[in-house]
Description:
With 426 residues, the protein is α/β, with parallel strands linked by helices. The chain folds into 3 domains: 5-51, no CATH class; 81-310, Pyrimidine Nucleoside Phosphorylase, Chain A, domain 2; 324-409, Pyrimidine nucleoside phosphorylase-like, C-terminal domain (Aldehyde Oxidoreductase, domain 3, Alpha-Beta Complex). It has helices at 5-13, 20-32, 37-50, 54-66, 93-103, 122-126, 138-147, 161-172, 179-192, 213-229, 251-262, 268-284, 291-296, 299-310, 341-353, 392-401, and strands at 81-85, 108-112, 150-154, 197-204, 233-240, 248-250, 324-329, 334-339, 367-370, 377-378, 383-389, 406-409. Strand 4 (197-204), helix 10 and strand 5 (233-240) form a beta-alpha-beta unit. The radius of gyration is 22 Å and the shape is globular.
Amino acid sequence: MDFSALDVIAAKRDGHELSDEMIGWTLAAYGTGEVAEEQMSALLMAIFFRGLNDRELRTWTDRMIASGERLNLRDLSRPTVDKHSTGGVGDKISLILAPLVAACGAAVPQLSGRGLGHTGGTLDKLESIPGWRAQLTLEEIREQLETVGAVICAAGASLAPVDRRLYALRDVTSTVESIPLISSSIMSKKIAEGTEALVLDVKFGRGAFIKDMETATELAHTMVRLGLEHDVKTVAKLTPMWSPLGRAVGNALEVNESVDVLHGGGPSDVRDLTIELAQAMCELVGITADPAARLDDGTAYEVYRAMIAAQGGDPDAVLSPAPLCDEVLATQSGIVHGVDALKVGVAAWRLGAGRSRKEDAVSVGAGVICLAKEGESVEKCQPLFELYADDDTHLEAGRHAIQDAVRFGDGPYAHLLSPKRDLIRE
């Protein structure tokens, strides 16, 4: 059956369902250029306002997967399980989690991305390690999973290639915040990756992409359904992101903090979330293990070293912060009742740790160290943050962005973040 882009756009604009054939034709024609960028932009905006029902979303995701290759990992000697986070400030969990779960006996194919705006990217962090490379062939991914058990790398251009173009288009057309478009983008790549199981870490809060728990819950349920419909065992966890995760926000700074956790130390919030996710990942693939023990006995750290070395990196390299440092001092005494994750993330971005456009370079050593966390008492003129930058211009921009990031209270600190919740399974 022949379709035209105008017919498809008008149908969704007017609130009608798109047939499987219409969706298949549209994505294929967009891939060949028959559907123009401005026409796809109009369709994305129509979807933004009208949404996709379950059948439309399933078909949309199917066709995105079918636009490229699928990585077959089912014949590896270990069960495969991955984790995806929707992003946040100071979220370096993947750097610890992948080798930890591999140390427990699974294979972890972590295909990751780069940061944009105030949220950091896993690949940017690892590229602060001299020699480390993000680009691997599908054959190299398989071999590293078999020998090391964990790989963190860029998603190849052959996996869901239509999503790569749609993602860039959504970014410049203000159609990013759409649950069908977010979920199909994330899940098409994860399903094409070929993993048996997937744990989703869905962040919500001021420092997250999604601000409220209700929207995050809807997104989590949607992605879990897509995974299960494509024979990927999938669960989701909701994680608050009102304050930065850990104390380090930046590229080399977060790698150093990750190594601290892999040595059995580091901030308790980073360690606790990593262990919780590791337990969920192991459970999904039938592995009985104690992730905390694998952190404390050094097993996970040895897998991390092997993972970095396998991708050309030097696991013994000393990662220094940027040369210029400034401190932000407390203007009053009191108990810290809040550290604004968004302001800290924007400050790290302005210091040079992030990018405004995908092609922008990032500073290896720029970023923020949070010296004060919720519940801690501070005195007036006590340092709250350390700011690192490569030049005075970035340092001043970071200092301006982080003003008033700490909220003080007179009484005891009441932990306002959500309690631990059961995993979302359907």
